[in-house]
Write a structure and sequence with these properties.
Number of helices: 21
InterPro entries: Membrane-Transporter-like, SLC26A/SulP_dom, STAS_dom, STAS_dom_sf
GO cellular component, one term: membrane
Mean pLDDT: 89
Helix content: 55-70%
Strand content: 5-15%
Transmembrane segments: 21-39, 45-61, 66-83, 89-107, 119-137, 152-170, 177-196, 226-251, 272-292, 304-322, 327-347, 359-390
Domain STAS: 410-505
Radius of gyration: 29 Å
Low-confidence stretches: 1-7
Number of domains: 2
Number of strands: 7
Distance between the termini: 41 Å
Keywords: Membrane, Transmembrane, Transmembrane helix
Length: 505
Amino acid sequence: MKQNIQLSLKGTDFKTEILSGLTVAIALVPEAIAFSFIAGVSPLVGLYAAFVMGLITAVLGGRPGMISGATGAIAVVVMPLIATQGVDYLFPAIILGGVFQILVGALKLGKFIRLVPHPVMLGFVNGLAIVIFKAQFSQFHTKAGEWMSGSPLYIMLGLVVLAMLVIQYLPKLTKIVPSPLMAIAVVSGIVIGFGVETPTVGDMASISGGLPSIIIPNVPFDMETLLIILPFSLKVAGVGLIESLLTLTLIDEITETRGSGNRESVAQGLGNIISGFTGGMGGCAMIGQSMINIQSGARQRWSGIIAAVALLSFVIVLSSIIEQIPIAALVGVMFMVAIGTFEWSSLRVLNKVPKFDVIVLLTVSIVTVIEDLAVAVVIGIIMSALSFAWDNAVRIRARKKTDEFGRKHYEIYGPLFFGSATNFFEKFDFKSDPEKVIIDFSESRVADLSGIEAINKISDKYEEYGKEVTFIHLSQDCVELLAKAKSHVEIDHDHDPHYAVVYDA
Protein backbone atom coordinates (compact mmCIF):
# COMPACT_ATOMS: atom_id res chain seq x y z
CA MET A 1 0.00 0.00 0.00
CA LYS A 2 2.83 2.35 0.93
CA GLN A 3 4.55 1.56 -2.34
CA ASN A 4 1.38 2.35 -4.28
CA ILE A 5 1.11 5.75 -2.56
CA GLN A 6 4.72 6.52 -3.38
CA LEU A 7 4.16 5.57 -7.00
CA SER A 8 1.11 7.85 -7.17
CA LEU A 9 3.14 10.76 -5.77
CA LYS A 10 6.01 10.29 -8.18
CA GLY A 11 5.77 12.56 -11.21
CA THR A 12 2.63 14.33 -10.01
CA ASP A 13 2.27 18.01 -10.94
CA PHE A 14 0.68 19.17 -7.69
CA LYS A 15 0.27 22.77 -8.81
CA THR A 16 -1.82 21.69 -11.79
CA GLU A 17 -3.77 19.18 -9.70
CA ILE A 18 -4.57 21.77 -7.01
CA LEU A 19 -5.57 24.55 -9.41
CA SER A 20 -7.62 22.16 -11.54
CA GLY A 21 -9.36 20.84 -8.44
CA LEU A 22 -10.23 24.38 -7.27
CA THR A 23 -11.62 25.26 -10.70
CA VAL A 24 -13.79 22.15 -10.70
CA ALA A 25 -14.99 22.83 -7.15
CA ILE A 26 -16.14 26.34 -8.06
CA ALA A 27 -17.93 25.06 -11.17
CA LEU A 28 -19.61 22.32 -9.10
CA VAL A 29 -21.44 24.77 -6.85
CA PRO A 30 -24.05 26.19 -9.25
CA GLU A 31 -24.45 22.79 -10.92
CA ALA A 32 -25.23 21.08 -7.60
CA ILE A 33 -27.67 23.84 -6.65
CA ALA A 34 -29.43 23.69 -10.04
CA PHE A 35 -29.77 19.91 -9.93
CA SER A 36 -31.11 20.11 -6.37
CA PHE A 37 -33.82 22.47 -7.61
CA ILE A 38 -34.66 20.03 -10.44
CA ALA A 39 -35.00 17.15 -7.97
CA GLY A 40 -37.01 19.28 -5.55
CA VAL A 41 -34.63 19.17 -2.57
CA SER A 42 -32.52 21.62 -0.56
CA PRO A 43 -29.30 22.84 -2.24
CA LEU A 44 -27.28 21.25 0.57
CA VAL A 45 -28.60 17.82 -0.49
CA GLY A 46 -26.96 18.33 -3.88
CA LEU A 47 -23.79 19.84 -2.43
CA TYR A 48 -23.31 17.00 0.05
CA ALA A 49 -23.84 14.50 -2.76
CA ALA A 50 -21.23 16.27 -4.89
CA PHE A 51 -18.74 16.13 -2.01
CA VAL A 52 -19.28 12.46 -1.18
CA MET A 53 -19.45 11.22 -4.79
CA GLY A 54 -16.45 13.34 -5.77
CA LEU A 55 -14.29 12.16 -2.88
CA ILE A 56 -15.14 8.44 -2.99
CA THR A 57 -14.75 8.08 -6.76
CA ALA A 58 -11.57 10.18 -6.80
CA VAL A 59 -9.94 7.88 -4.24
CA LEU A 60 -11.35 4.51 -5.28
CA GLY A 61 -12.63 4.98 -8.86
CA GLY A 62 -11.28 3.37 -11.98
CA ARG A 63 -10.45 6.58 -13.85
CA PRO A 64 -8.03 9.14 -12.35
CA GLY A 65 -8.99 12.67 -13.38
CA MET A 66 -12.70 11.91 -13.76
CA ILE A 67 -15.07 13.98 -11.63
CA SER A 68 -18.31 12.73 -10.09
CA GLY A 69 -21.04 14.61 -8.29
CA ALA A 70 -24.74 15.38 -8.26
CA THR A 71 -25.99 15.27 -11.85
CA GLY A 72 -29.03 16.27 -13.84
CA ALA A 73 -29.48 12.69 -15.05
CA ILE A 74 -29.98 11.42 -11.49
CA ALA A 75 -32.05 14.47 -10.52
CA VAL A 76 -34.52 13.77 -13.31
CA VAL A 77 -34.77 10.09 -12.31
CA VAL A 78 -35.54 10.75 -8.61
CA MET A 79 -37.75 13.81 -9.12
CA PRO A 80 -41.02 11.79 -9.46
CA LEU A 81 -40.18 9.77 -6.32
CA ILE A 82 -39.61 12.92 -4.25
CA ALA A 83 -42.73 14.56 -5.65
CA THR A 84 -44.99 11.61 -4.77
CA GLN A 85 -43.38 10.08 -1.66
CA GLY A 86 -41.29 12.87 -0.16
CA VAL A 87 -37.55 13.37 0.28
CA ASP A 88 -37.30 10.62 2.94
CA TYR A 89 -37.72 7.97 0.22
CA LEU A 90 -34.91 9.50 -1.83
CA PHE A 91 -32.14 8.25 0.44
CA PRO A 92 -33.00 4.51 0.55
CA ALA A 93 -33.53 4.61 -3.22
CA ILE A 94 -30.03 6.03 -3.71
CA ILE A 95 -28.57 3.47 -1.27
CA LEU A 96 -30.20 0.53 -3.06
CA GLY A 97 -29.09 1.92 -6.42
CA GLY A 98 -25.54 1.98 -5.08
CA VAL A 99 -25.83 -1.69 -4.06
CA PHE A 100 -26.85 -2.59 -7.63
CA GLN A 101 -23.85 -0.68 -8.99
CA ILE A 102 -21.47 -2.53 -6.68
CA LEU A 103 -22.96 -5.83 -7.89
CA VAL A 104 -22.30 -4.79 -11.49
CA GLY A 105 -18.67 -4.09 -10.65
CA ALA A 106 -18.26 -7.23 -8.52
CA LEU A 107 -19.65 -9.38 -11.35
CA LYS A 108 -17.26 -7.62 -13.74
CA LEU A 109 -20.06 -6.44 -16.02
CA GLY A 110 -18.47 -3.02 -16.50
CA LYS A 111 -16.48 -4.43 -19.41
CA PHE A 112 -19.64 -4.52 -21.51
CA ILE A 113 -19.28 -0.78 -22.03
CA ARG A 114 -16.86 -1.85 -24.78
CA LEU A 115 -19.89 -3.02 -26.76
CA VAL A 116 -20.98 0.58 -27.27
CA PRO A 117 -20.25 1.32 -30.97
CA HIS A 118 -18.29 4.39 -31.98
CA PRO A 119 -21.27 6.16 -33.63
CA VAL A 120 -23.16 5.80 -30.32
CA MET A 121 -20.17 7.28 -28.46
CA LEU A 122 -20.06 10.22 -30.87
CA GLY A 123 -23.81 10.73 -30.50
CA PHE A 124 -23.48 10.58 -26.72
CA VAL A 125 -20.69 13.16 -26.68
CA ASN A 126 -22.38 15.53 -29.13
CA GLY A 127 -25.78 15.21 -27.46
CA LEU A 128 -24.32 15.84 -24.02
CA ALA A 129 -22.39 18.86 -25.32
CA ILE A 130 -25.67 20.29 -26.61
CA VAL A 131 -27.36 19.55 -23.26
CA ILE A 132 -24.57 21.33 -21.36
CA PHE A 133 -24.75 24.31 -23.72
CA LYS A 134 -28.54 24.44 -23.60
CA ALA A 135 -28.65 24.19 -19.80
CA GLN A 136 -26.71 27.45 -19.41
CA PHE A 137 -29.54 29.50 -20.91
CA SER A 138 -31.57 28.99 -17.73
CA GLN A 139 -29.11 31.38 -16.08
CA PHE A 140 -30.37 34.18 -18.33
CA HIS A 141 -33.72 34.18 -16.53
CA THR A 142 -34.73 36.62 -13.82
CA LYS A 143 -35.99 35.47 -10.42
CA ALA A 144 -39.50 35.82 -11.80
CA GLY A 145 -38.65 33.27 -14.48
CA GLU A 146 -38.62 35.75 -17.37
CA TRP A 147 -35.80 36.30 -19.85
CA MET A 148 -33.38 39.09 -19.03
CA SER A 149 -33.58 42.24 -21.12
CA GLY A 150 -31.89 45.61 -21.39
CA SER A 151 -28.76 46.37 -19.36
CA PRO A 152 -28.81 43.21 -17.19
CA LEU A 153 -28.79 41.06 -20.34
CA TYR A 154 -26.02 43.05 -22.03
CA ILE A 155 -23.87 42.97 -18.88
CA MET A 156 -24.40 39.22 -18.52
CA LEU A 157 -23.54 38.58 -22.17
CA GLY A 158 -20.47 40.81 -21.97
CA LEU A 159 -19.13 39.00 -18.91
CA VAL A 160 -19.82 35.59 -20.48
CA VAL A 161 -17.94 36.57 -23.63
CA LEU A 162 -15.06 37.93 -21.53
CA ALA A 163 -14.79 34.62 -19.65
CA MET A 164 -14.80 32.70 -22.94
CA LEU A 165 -12.09 34.92 -24.43
CA VAL A 166 -9.86 34.42 -21.38
CA ILE A 167 -10.28 30.64 -21.64
CA GLN A 168 -9.59 30.70 -25.38
CA TYR A 169 -6.53 32.95 -25.48
CA LEU A 170 -4.83 32.74 -22.06
CA PRO A 171 -3.19 29.36 -22.83
CA LYS A 172 -1.39 31.01 -25.76
CA LEU A 173 0.25 33.41 -23.31
CA THR A 174 0.81 31.21 -20.26
CA LYS A 175 -0.28 27.88 -18.83
CA ILE A 176 0.79 28.62 -15.26
CA VAL A 177 -2.86 28.89 -14.14
CA PRO A 178 -5.74 26.89 -15.70
CA SER A 179 -7.59 29.26 -18.01
CA PRO A 180 -11.08 28.43 -16.57
CA LEU A 181 -9.88 29.42 -13.08
CA MET A 182 -8.35 32.63 -14.42
CA ALA A 183 -11.58 33.42 -16.28
CA ILE A 184 -13.57 33.07 -13.05
CA ALA A 185 -11.03 35.24 -11.20
CA VAL A 186 -10.99 38.00 -13.86
CA VAL A 187 -14.77 38.25 -14.18
CA SER A 188 -15.24 38.09 -10.39
CA GLY A 189 -12.61 40.79 -9.90
CA ILE A 190 -14.36 43.11 -12.36
CA VAL A 191 -17.82 42.53 -10.85
CA ILE A 192 -16.73 42.89 -7.23
CA GLY A 193 -14.18 45.65 -7.87
CA PHE A 194 -16.51 47.88 -9.87
CA GLY A 195 -19.73 46.90 -8.13
CA VAL A 196 -21.34 45.57 -11.30
CA GLU A 197 -24.93 44.45 -10.84
CA THR A 198 -25.23 40.90 -12.17
CA PRO A 199 -26.52 37.57 -10.79
CA THR A 200 -24.17 35.71 -8.46
CA VAL A 201 -24.03 32.22 -6.94
CA GLY A 202 -25.60 33.63 -3.78
CA ASP A 203 -28.64 34.73 -5.78
CA MET A 204 -29.39 31.10 -6.59
CA ALA A 205 -29.37 29.92 -2.96
CA SER A 206 -27.29 30.04 0.19
CA ILE A 207 -24.63 27.34 0.30
CA SER A 208 -23.78 27.79 3.98
CA GLY A 209 -23.92 24.61 6.04
CA GLY A 210 -22.00 22.22 8.28
CA LEU A 211 -20.44 18.81 7.93
CA PRO A 212 -22.70 16.11 6.50
CA SER A 213 -23.94 13.79 9.25
CA ILE A 214 -24.97 10.14 9.24
CA ILE A 215 -28.73 9.63 8.90
CA ILE A 216 -31.00 6.61 8.91
CA PRO A 217 -33.73 6.97 6.28
CA ASN A 218 -37.02 7.74 8.00
CA VAL A 219 -39.12 5.19 6.11
CA PRO A 220 -40.69 1.84 7.00
CA PHE A 221 -38.26 -0.98 6.27
CA ASP A 222 -40.79 -3.34 4.68
CA MET A 223 -41.75 -4.85 1.34
CA GLU A 224 -44.02 -1.93 0.45
CA THR A 225 -41.13 0.53 0.72
CA LEU A 226 -38.93 -1.79 -1.35
CA LEU A 227 -41.52 -1.96 -4.11
CA ILE A 228 -41.82 1.84 -4.12
CA ILE A 229 -38.10 2.55 -4.39
CA LEU A 230 -37.01 -0.45 -6.51
CA PRO A 231 -37.85 1.01 -9.96
CA PHE A 232 -36.10 4.27 -9.10
CA SER A 233 -33.07 2.45 -7.67
CA LEU A 234 -32.69 0.44 -10.87
CA LYS A 235 -32.89 3.64 -12.92
CA VAL A 236 -30.36 5.39 -10.66
CA ALA A 237 -27.97 2.45 -11.03
CA GLY A 238 -28.45 2.14 -14.79
CA VAL A 239 -28.36 5.81 -15.71
CA GLY A 240 -25.45 6.47 -13.35
CA LEU A 241 -23.33 3.63 -14.71
CA ILE A 242 -24.05 4.39 -18.36
CA GLU A 243 -23.07 8.05 -17.95
CA SER A 244 -20.05 7.19 -15.79
CA LEU A 245 -18.67 4.43 -18.01
CA LEU A 246 -19.18 6.39 -21.21
CA THR A 247 -17.43 9.38 -19.63
CA LEU A 248 -14.63 7.04 -18.56
CA THR A 249 -14.29 5.77 -22.13
CA LEU A 250 -14.21 9.32 -23.49
CA ILE A 251 -11.45 10.38 -21.08
CA ASP A 252 -9.54 7.20 -21.92
CA GLU A 253 -9.51 8.31 -25.55
CA ILE A 254 -8.47 11.88 -24.72
CA THR A 255 -5.65 10.90 -22.36
CA GLU A 256 -4.64 7.77 -24.30
CA THR A 257 -4.78 5.72 -21.11
CA ARG A 258 -7.17 3.05 -19.88
CA GLY A 259 -9.38 3.10 -16.81
CA SER A 260 -11.21 0.23 -15.14
CA GLY A 261 -14.95 0.09 -15.73
CA ASN A 262 -15.50 -2.54 -13.02
CA ARG A 263 -13.57 -0.59 -10.41
CA GLU A 264 -15.46 2.57 -11.35
CA SER A 265 -18.78 0.73 -10.98
CA VAL A 266 -17.88 -0.33 -7.44
CA ALA A 267 -16.72 3.18 -6.53
CA GLN A 268 -19.89 4.74 -7.94
CA GLY A 269 -21.97 2.29 -5.93
CA LEU A 270 -20.07 2.93 -2.71
CA GLY A 271 -20.35 6.68 -3.28
CA ASN A 272 -24.11 6.44 -3.71
CA ILE A 273 -24.50 4.29 -0.60
CA ILE A 274 -22.54 6.76 1.55
CA SER A 275 -24.36 9.66 -0.11
CA GLY A 276 -27.70 8.13 0.85
CA PHE A 277 -26.57 7.71 4.46
CA THR A 278 -25.31 11.32 4.65
CA GLY A 279 -28.33 13.10 3.24
CA GLY A 280 -27.13 13.40 -0.36
CA MET A 281 -29.09 12.90 -3.59
CA GLY A 282 -26.51 10.59 -5.12
CA GLY A 283 -24.90 11.12 -8.50
CA CYS A 284 -22.49 9.82 -11.09
CA ALA A 285 -19.65 10.99 -13.34
CA MET A 286 -20.00 14.53 -14.74
CA ILE A 287 -18.69 14.96 -18.25
CA GLY A 288 -18.63 18.77 -18.03
CA GLN A 289 -16.56 18.95 -14.84
CA SER A 290 -14.42 16.02 -15.98
CA MET A 291 -13.61 17.89 -19.19
CA ILE A 292 -12.74 21.05 -17.20
CA ASN A 293 -10.39 18.95 -15.10
CA ILE A 294 -8.72 17.18 -18.01
CA GLN A 295 -8.45 20.33 -20.14
CA SER A 296 -6.83 22.09 -17.17
CA GLY A 297 -4.07 19.46 -17.24
CA ALA A 298 -5.05 17.22 -14.32
CA ARG A 299 -4.30 13.53 -14.77
CA GLN A 300 -4.14 12.16 -11.21
CA ARG A 301 -6.60 11.45 -8.41
CA TRP A 302 -5.47 14.48 -6.44
CA SER A 303 -7.51 16.95 -8.46
CA GLY A 304 -10.73 15.08 -7.69
CA ILE A 305 -9.87 14.83 -4.00
CA ILE A 306 -9.00 18.53 -3.84
CA ALA A 307 -12.22 19.45 -5.67
CA ALA A 308 -14.32 17.49 -3.16
CA VAL A 309 -12.53 18.88 -0.10
CA ALA A 310 -12.63 22.44 -1.50
CA LEU A 311 -16.37 22.10 -2.19
CA LEU A 312 -17.00 21.08 1.42
CA SER A 313 -14.87 23.98 2.65
CA PHE A 314 -17.01 26.34 0.56
CA VAL A 315 -20.09 25.04 2.38
CA ILE A 316 -18.58 25.21 5.87
CA VAL A 317 -16.34 28.31 5.95
CA LEU A 318 -16.12 30.05 2.56
CA SER A 319 -19.76 30.31 1.55
CA SER A 320 -19.82 34.13 1.79
CA ILE A 321 -16.93 34.39 -0.68
CA ILE A 322 -18.15 31.78 -3.15
CA GLU A 323 -21.62 33.31 -3.18
CA GLN A 324 -20.12 36.50 -4.67
CA ILE A 325 -18.88 34.73 -7.82
CA PRO A 326 -20.84 35.95 -10.87
CA ILE A 327 -22.95 33.35 -12.62
CA ALA A 328 -21.71 34.81 -15.92
CA ALA A 329 -18.18 33.55 -15.24
CA LEU A 330 -19.40 30.00 -14.70
CA VAL A 331 -21.69 30.16 -17.74
CA GLY A 332 -18.72 31.20 -19.85
CA VAL A 333 -16.70 28.26 -18.53
CA MET A 334 -19.50 25.79 -19.28
CA PHE A 335 -20.05 27.24 -22.77
CA MET A 336 -16.38 26.58 -23.55
CA VAL A 337 -16.66 23.08 -22.06
CA ALA A 338 -19.61 22.36 -24.35
CA ILE A 339 -17.74 23.70 -27.39
CA GLY A 340 -14.66 21.65 -26.49
CA THR A 341 -16.69 18.51 -25.79
CA PHE A 342 -18.57 18.50 -29.11
CA GLU A 343 -16.86 16.26 -31.67
CA TRP A 344 -16.66 18.74 -34.55
CA SER A 345 -14.75 16.19 -36.60
CA SER A 346 -17.90 14.06 -36.72
CA LEU A 347 -19.55 16.73 -38.90
CA ARG A 348 -16.72 16.59 -41.43
CA VAL A 349 -17.02 12.84 -41.97
CA LEU A 350 -20.81 12.60 -42.26
CA ASN A 351 -20.58 12.08 -46.02
CA LYS A 352 -17.64 9.68 -45.74
CA VAL A 353 -18.99 7.04 -43.34
CA PRO A 354 -21.82 4.51 -43.84
CA LYS A 355 -25.21 6.20 -43.88
CA PHE A 356 -26.55 3.97 -41.11
CA ASP A 357 -23.72 5.09 -38.79
CA VAL A 358 -24.75 8.69 -39.48
CA ILE A 359 -28.36 7.83 -38.63
CA VAL A 360 -27.27 6.21 -35.35
CA LEU A 361 -25.06 9.20 -34.46
CA LEU A 362 -27.83 11.72 -35.11
CA THR A 363 -30.48 9.60 -33.37
CA VAL A 364 -28.42 9.25 -30.19
CA SER A 365 -27.63 12.97 -30.18
CA ILE A 366 -31.27 13.97 -30.64
CA VAL A 367 -32.65 11.51 -28.07
CA THR A 368 -29.99 12.61 -25.55
CA VAL A 369 -31.22 16.18 -25.91
CA ILE A 370 -34.98 15.57 -25.88
CA GLU A 371 -35.20 12.51 -23.62
CA ASP A 372 -32.20 11.32 -21.57
CA LEU A 373 -28.79 9.76 -21.94
CA ALA A 374 -29.65 6.20 -20.91
CA VAL A 375 -32.54 5.89 -23.37
CA ALA A 376 -30.41 7.38 -26.15
CA VAL A 377 -27.53 4.96 -25.61
CA VAL A 378 -29.81 1.91 -25.38
CA ILE A 379 -31.56 2.94 -28.61
CA GLY A 380 -28.21 3.47 -30.33
CA ILE A 381 -26.87 0.08 -29.21
CA ILE A 382 -30.05 -1.70 -30.37
CA MET A 383 -29.93 0.04 -33.76
CA SER A 384 -26.25 -0.84 -34.21
CA ALA A 385 -26.79 -4.44 -33.09
CA LEU A 386 -29.68 -4.94 -35.51
CA SER A 387 -27.65 -3.43 -38.34
CA PHE A 388 -24.69 -5.69 -37.53
CA ALA A 389 -26.94 -8.76 -37.35
CA TRP A 390 -28.55 -7.95 -40.70
CA ASP A 391 -25.22 -7.32 -42.42
CA ASN A 392 -23.87 -10.66 -41.22
CA ALA A 393 -27.13 -12.47 -41.91
CA VAL A 394 -26.77 -11.87 -45.65
CA ARG A 395 -23.07 -12.71 -45.75
CA ILE A 396 -23.35 -16.47 -45.33
CA ARG A 397 -22.45 -18.22 -48.59
CA ALA A 398 -21.94 -21.74 -49.88
CA ARG A 399 -19.46 -22.78 -52.58
CA LYS A 400 -20.69 -25.93 -54.32
CA LYS A 401 -18.74 -28.63 -56.13
CA THR A 402 -18.98 -32.34 -56.95
CA ASP A 403 -15.91 -34.57 -56.46
CA GLU A 404 -14.74 -37.55 -58.53
CA PHE A 405 -16.80 -39.92 -56.35
CA GLY A 406 -20.03 -38.12 -57.13
CA ARG A 407 -20.31 -36.55 -53.68
CA LYS A 408 -21.55 -32.96 -53.50
CA HIS A 409 -19.58 -30.56 -51.31
CA TYR A 410 -21.00 -27.42 -49.71
CA GLU A 411 -18.17 -25.19 -48.45
CA ILE A 412 -19.79 -22.75 -46.04
CA TYR A 413 -18.28 -19.37 -45.29
CA GLY A 414 -19.68 -16.59 -43.12
CA PRO A 415 -21.14 -16.74 -39.60
CA LEU A 416 -24.06 -19.09 -38.84
CA PHE A 417 -26.29 -17.58 -36.16
CA PHE A 418 -29.93 -16.64 -35.56
CA GLY A 419 -29.85 -13.96 -38.26
CA SER A 420 -28.36 -16.13 -41.01
CA ALA A 421 -29.99 -19.49 -40.18
CA THR A 422 -32.83 -19.04 -42.69
CA ASN A 423 -30.48 -18.02 -45.53
CA PHE A 424 -28.23 -20.95 -44.65
CA PHE A 425 -31.08 -23.46 -44.95
CA GLU A 426 -32.02 -22.08 -48.37
CA LYS A 427 -28.54 -22.84 -49.80
CA PHE A 428 -29.25 -26.57 -50.11
CA ASP A 429 -31.00 -28.45 -52.92
CA PHE A 430 -32.23 -31.44 -50.91
CA LYS A 431 -34.26 -32.99 -53.71
CA SER A 432 -31.68 -32.80 -56.50
CA ASP A 433 -28.50 -33.45 -54.51
CA PRO A 434 -26.70 -36.82 -54.96
CA GLU A 435 -26.86 -39.64 -52.44
CA LYS A 436 -23.86 -38.36 -50.48
CA VAL A 437 -23.39 -34.76 -49.33
CA ILE A 438 -20.51 -33.19 -47.40
CA ILE A 439 -20.98 -29.84 -45.65
CA ASP A 440 -17.67 -28.17 -44.75
CA PHE A 441 -17.57 -25.53 -41.98
CA SER A 442 -13.83 -24.79 -42.13
CA GLU A 443 -14.54 -21.18 -43.22
CA SER A 444 -17.64 -20.70 -41.10
CA ARG A 445 -18.40 -20.37 -37.44
CA VAL A 446 -21.50 -21.52 -35.59
CA ALA A 447 -22.26 -18.74 -33.13
CA ASP A 448 -25.38 -19.78 -31.22
CA LEU A 449 -28.14 -22.35 -30.68
CA SER A 450 -30.04 -21.11 -33.73
CA GLY A 451 -27.06 -22.21 -35.81
CA ILE A 452 -27.03 -25.59 -34.07
CA GLU A 453 -30.74 -26.04 -34.73
CA ALA A 454 -30.24 -25.14 -38.41
CA ILE A 455 -27.66 -27.97 -38.71
CA ASN A 456 -30.12 -30.38 -37.08
CA LYS A 457 -32.82 -29.38 -39.58
CA ILE A 458 -30.43 -29.92 -42.51
CA SER A 459 -29.70 -33.42 -41.20
CA ASP A 460 -33.41 -34.22 -40.81
CA LYS A 461 -34.22 -32.93 -44.30
CA TYR A 462 -31.59 -35.09 -46.02
CA GLU A 463 -32.80 -38.09 -44.03
CA GLU A 464 -36.31 -37.49 -45.39
CA TYR A 465 -34.91 -37.90 -48.92
CA GLY A 466 -32.90 -40.97 -47.91
CA LYS A 467 -29.55 -39.27 -48.47
CA GLU A 468 -26.36 -39.36 -46.45
CA VAL A 469 -24.97 -36.05 -45.15
CA THR A 470 -21.66 -35.49 -43.37
CA PHE A 471 -20.66 -32.37 -41.48
CA ILE A 472 -16.93 -31.66 -41.19
CA HIS A 473 -14.84 -29.06 -39.40
CA LEU A 474 -17.37 -28.33 -36.66
CA SER A 475 -16.07 -27.29 -33.25
CA GLN A 476 -16.29 -29.71 -30.32
CA ASP A 477 -18.91 -27.48 -28.67
CA CYS A 478 -21.08 -27.71 -31.77
CA VAL A 479 -20.86 -31.48 -31.82
CA GLU A 480 -21.79 -31.75 -28.13
CA LEU A 481 -24.85 -29.53 -28.58
CA LEU A 482 -26.16 -31.24 -31.70
CA ALA A 483 -29.26 -33.32 -30.97
CA LYS A 484 -29.96 -35.29 -34.15
CA ALA A 485 -27.09 -34.53 -36.52
CA LYS A 486 -24.34 -35.66 -34.17
CA SER A 487 -24.06 -39.09 -35.82
CA HIS A 488 -23.40 -37.39 -39.16
CA VAL A 489 -20.38 -35.41 -37.95
CA GLU A 490 -16.89 -36.41 -38.99
CA ILE A 491 -14.39 -35.57 -36.25
CA ASP A 492 -10.92 -34.40 -37.33
CA HIS A 493 -9.00 -33.66 -34.15
CA ASP A 494 -6.07 -32.14 -36.04
CA HIS A 495 -8.03 -29.70 -38.18
CA ASP A 496 -11.40 -29.10 -36.53
CA PRO A 497 -11.69 -25.64 -34.97
CA HIS A 498 -11.65 -25.05 -31.22
CA TYR A 499 -14.04 -22.31 -30.18
CA ALA A 500 -17.06 -22.11 -27.89
CA VAL A 501 -20.67 -21.66 -28.93
CA VAL A 502 -22.59 -19.07 -26.96
CA TYR A 503 -25.54 -20.75 -25.31
CA ASP A 504 -27.58 -20.71 -22.12
CA ALA A 505 -26.27 -23.62 -20.03
